[in-house]
Amino acid sequence: MLYGILLESVRDGICLNYGRQIWKRIVQELNFEHETFTTFGQYDDSLVTKIAECLSDILHEETSDYYMEYFGECFVRFFTNYGYDKILRVAGRHFRDFLHSIDQLHDSNKYSFPKMKSPLFHVLQEDQYGALLQYKSRRQGFQQYIIGQLRECGTRFYNENIYVKIQENISTNQCTVVTFRVNFNNSIINEISKNLHPFPNLPNLTSETFFKIFPFSILIDSSLCISHMGKSIKNLFPIDTILIGRYLNDIFNLIRPDITLEWNNLINYGRHIVFLMENRIPLKSLNNFNETPRINLKGQMKWLSSWNLIAFLCHPVLSTTEEMLNIGLSVHDLNFYDGSSEILISGIQHHRQLHSEIDKQQAWVSKLQTSKLELKQWREKGRHLLYSLMPRHIGIMLQQGIVPNSICESHKLVTVLFCYTLDFKDVIQKLSPTEIVQSINEMIIIFDQCTEKYDVFKVETKADSSYMLVSGIQQRISQRRISDRSDSSDQSEIISGLAIDLLKESKKLINKITKESFQIKIGFHSGSAVGGIVGHKNYQYCLFGDTINTASRITATSDIGRIHLSETSWQLLKDSMYFETSPRGKIPIKGKGEMETHWLINSKEAFIKEMNKYESITNNNQNLSSLSDIHSTIVENNQRKKSLPNVINKRTSFEGICPFSYHK
Fold first, then answer.
1. 486 exposed, middle or buried (CB, 10 Å; 0-12, 13-18, 19+)?
2. Is there a cis peptide before residue 257, judged by omega within 30 degrees of 0?
3. Is-contact 6 75, C-beta < 8 A?
4. What is one term from the GO cellular component aspect held by the record (predicted)?
5. Fold (topology level) of 402-479+486-622
6. Tell me: the pLDDT tens digits for 54-69?
7. Residues of the chain with CATH 3.90.1520.10
8. SS (H, E, C) 413-453
9. Helices 487-505 and 433-451 meet at what angle, rounded to 10?
10. Which of 369, 379, 370 shows the shortest CA–CA distance to 37?
11. 207-338: which CATH number, 3.90.180.10, 3.30.450.260, 3.40.50.2300, 3.90.1170.20?
12. 8 Å CB contact between 469 and 452
């Protein structure tokens, strides 16, 4: 796991250099829950490499390694906003000092990032032209990321032009071990060697003086057995516990660095690496606590050539007085000469305050996550509300910032349906206002439930319960359908299937005066129309043209309980394998003279089978609104690699298209 500050730096770098639209595309491609990350939240290690690969696939400009290196540079630039650059600036006077101090810098951030699994950096060798730096980590694929960090640190903080290449890579599936050749001006190493003065010959240090100066110290021989041990450490274990002569690994567990306990490793890594060990065997406990007392010892490994021993010069890692009491330590047991007791007392005083602030921060992070989730939910609700008021492609245009009243479009062919409730005007004169609203609401709910299964747009609902729908507008989104036929024949089938459903469901609407079903007339007509948004505050999408007037008059001349259609709509429907029609003949239409019209009789067996198949699939997959969604998703996936569409235009789920339209 890694902290969110790394991912936030990646997001910041992408938005800064490639734009927010690219980042939104990545968020959608990788199915991130939010567009941002919490600084102290924990995330999967693989997310950084996934983002680099996704960015490479989208831009088609550079490899993922290039972007990983860029992300490393972004991290150094990003954390300067949090004040961490001050720590790097005091790490050393020269870049070589910084390389030797990387491990200690990670250790200094343990309070801010207590769960950080920091990598291990170790300078193997250096000369006047640079150094060999070994990188070791449990994470996979971060080599280029480290190169970017090193280069940016050298340029930003030390004014050095750094060249980094991979000298050796002996990584396995479990661990990454890479040796970098870091070239920079390291001539300071020669000056340091010249300025070294010979040490005066002093008498040998006695063991009594040594352990008095370092009460928390362990001497280790070449077989990695404990040769001697400071009194303060001995007192932590029960009196009858044998410590001297036993293997170090039997008494203590090496937590950091992540290396094998070998003599040469202790000497090599001990020069600049901080070691952390924890007791394996039980300590003596002076209090009746339920938990087993533990102690961590932190310090450096130093080789004493005159004794041929390695001295682990350490101190206990303590944060509270309760820990000291639990393991039987007092201030008197600490090193008197290096200020450990003062540091510990000062640290304990600030520890509670620090933990209190961390708890507040964690609570804030948790609250932020909840707020982000609620914001996402409200955005979805707002989007669904917008798409219920406008055709989907119009809603997308509004989201992109297009001025509403500038939207005007011509539809070459649409099919408009009206549904009239004849006896509703008489009913409202005899019902109370509450009953009127209830009756209208029941009717609209039933009709809306029918339209949800079809790719139609509800234009309006009037107070007299007249219902207006149009098909052919939503299909302006390209490549949505599976059908090989034209959109015109498809939209007539959509309206026909919906009309049958409306007529069937309308029988459930009971007139509270007559106690019988309402008298319903349905009719539809196909033709051209003009659409656009009208209004300044309350936007409304309206359709204009002779097609709307003709559809209204076709409906008005229908019979009660029947579906009336014009000659134009019948021409689109006549070859359908799903519906049965019959001619009505010529009838007078107001403003049109005599027109040839037809009746929509019923649906055929093929329609019923397709509806059953549609319902079966939608029940198994609630995320699909129709069978055509399957095809739409495939089309979009195939087009991703061809171009970079606007993220907003990508639909996660479509409203239902006619479920039987994918047959030829």
1. exposed
2. yes
3. yes
4. guanylate cyclase complex, soluble
5. Alpha-Beta Plaits (3.30.70)
6. 999 998 888 888 999 9
7. 1-82
8. EEEEEEEEECCHHHHHCCCCHHHHHHHHHHHHHHHHHHHCC
9. 140
10. 369
11. 3.30.450.260
12. no
- Distance between CA atoms of residues 285 and 323, nearest Å: 11
CA atoms 204, 206, 209, 211: torsion sign:
positive
Tokens of 254: 């090496």
Residues spanned by CATH 3.30.450.260 within the chain? Answer: 207-338
Bridge partners of residue 543, in order along the sequence = 531
The token pair that represents 524 in the structure block: 């539809």
For 403, residues 6+ apart whose C-beta sits below 8 A from its C-beta are none
Domain made up of 1-82: CATH architecture: Alpha-Beta Complex (3.90)
pLDDT in tens, 297-322: 888 888 888 888 899 988 888 766 67
The residues, ordered by sequence, that sit 6+ positions from 37 with a Cβ below 8 Å of its Cβ are: 4, 7, 8, 11, 43
For 462-479, give one letter per residue: b (16+ CB within 10 A) or e.
eeebbbbbbbbbbbebee
Strand, helix or coil for residue 338: coil
Residue showing tokens 């989104």: 477
* Chain segment 66-123, per-residue pLDDT in tens: 999 999 989 888 887 776 677 777 777 888 888 888 877 777 666 667 677 778 888 8
Do 130 and 184 meet the contact criterion of CB atoms below 8 Å apart?
yes
Which residue in the block uniquely carries the two structure tokens 């009756």? 439
**pLDDT tier at 573, thresholds 50, 70, 90:** confident
Rounded alpha-carbon distances, angstroms, from residue 489 to 311, 554, 556: 88, 19, 24
Give the global pTM.
0.52
Q: How many CA atoms lie within 13 A of 185 on its CB side?
A: 8
